[in-house]
Design brief:
Helix content is 38%, strand content 24%. By secondary structure, it is an alpha/beta fold. Helix 10 runs antiparallel to helix 11. Keywords: Monooxygenase, Oxidoreductase.
Length: 369
């Protein structure tokens, strides 16, 4: 049985390894010139690590990751809104790994079957029967896995009436600083703006920031970040000072409205192509990893691709759409800018018991293969 995987990101490469381990002949088509990512860190929550463990890759990730958890949420001045008991979080759900995206891409690329990765191939159209039209010609497969992101050409080909991505109402910056010590990873909330940071294994710090803005608003990069966040609590100003001008990535945040199905005939949507979500729970890549492992397992346990894809849709769509809704709600609250609303939000966060935090995470982090 042959599978063509469209997209060589985290979800696509994980799907390639998972399917190959189940005996599938796989081919990954990636439009970029090489299989790599730059400029950003990635949090792999315990559910994602369990997915990687199922493929025998969890330990390789842990060796190149910093095992830690975010300490909580602070205000722009530095006072605590909520404090995370990281030991209790680990006891309940397992450890979290902070890794650079390029590192996990390296590990997943190395795990994929030799000769299966084809870079520089642009897909133009995909048909439900498994026909793929691309710059190198036409290919056919028993299964096509669409792992080609939020603007998926596969989704547009097979589901032309599916909803388009929607703007979440805020824009974001991502960057990795020069190596510098920080005490702990934190996210800080202001009025319509947020900043977060976490240490990477090599001593550099992954930082991100958001600000409510009209879609398509241009940015002056580091200069704008200093203007917006330069007077926030330490180490935020120091982190900006440790960032090179060309290290700042800027993009608007979009999410995909709920789809009515993730499958059609021989096609399966995976990761952002199926359920692109806002980054507020750090679950985008984690859910793509889950998708890949579940899809491969169901295909291995079924006597037909059609029945396995039906089970995949039944297993993955409710879960991923639930997580996407939760991430969207958190982002909306985090971006509140009205002074009275922010005062009420901050007071509620300070009064919320720790048990409510763990209950909210349990449906997400307790997942296992």
């Amino acid at each position: 049985m042959k599978a063509i995987i469209i997209g060589g990101g985290i979800g696509g490469l994980c799907a390639a390894t998972a399917l190959a381990q189940r005996g599938w002949d796989v081919e990954v088509l990636e439009r970029a010139a090489q299989f790599t990512e730059v400029g950003a860190g990635l949090s792999l929550w315990p559910n994602a690590l369990r997915a990687l463990d199922a493929l025998g890759l969890g330990d390789s990730i842990r060796e190149r990751a910093l095992m830690s958890a975010q300490a909580g949420i602070r205000t722009a001045s530095g006072s605590w809104l909520s404090r995370t008991d990281t030991d209790e979080l680990e006891r309940r759900f397992g450890r979290l790994a902070m890794v650079h995206r390029a590192d996990i891409l390296d590990i997943l690329s190395a795990a994929a079957p030799s000769g299966s990765l084809r870079a520089g191939v642009t897909v133009h159209e995909v048909q439900p029967d498994g026909t793929v039209l691309h710059t190198d010609g036409v290919s056919t497969a028993d299964l096509v896995v669409a792992a080609d992101g939020i603007h998926s050409i596969v989704r547009r080909s097979v589901w032309p009436d599916a909803p388009s991505p929607r703007y979440a109402g805020y824009t974001a910056w991502r960057m990795v600083t020069e190596p510098m010590p920080i005490d702990e990873g934190v996210e800080s909330w202001g009025r319509g703006q947020r900043v977060g940071y976490a240490q990477l294994p090599d001593g550099r710090v992954y930082c991100y920031a958001t600000a409510s803005a009209p879609e398509g608003t241009s940015s002056t990069g580091l200069a704008e970040l200093r203007q917006r966040f330069g007077d926030w609590h330490e180490p935020i100003p120091a982190l900006l000072d440790a960032t090179a001008d060309d290290a700042v990535l800027h993009h608007d945040i979009h999410a995909l409205p709920p789809l009515t199905t993730y499958v059609s005939d021989k096609i399966a949507l995976l990761g952002d192509a199926a359920h692109a979500m806002t980054p507020n729970l750090g679950q985008g890549a984690c859910q793509a990893l889950e998708d890949a492992v579940v899809l491969a397992g169901l295909l291995a346990g079924s006597d037909s691709v059609a029945s396995a894809l039906k089970e995949y849709d039944h297993a993955r769509r409710p879960r991923t759409q639930m997580i996407a809704r939760s991430a969207d709600r958190i982002g909306s609250v985090g971006q509140w800018s009205s002074p009275p609303a922010v005062v009420l939000r901050n007071a509620a966060m300070r009064l919320a018991p720790a048990s409510s935090f763990y209950r909210s995470l349990a449906p997400i982090l307790n997942w296992s293969v």
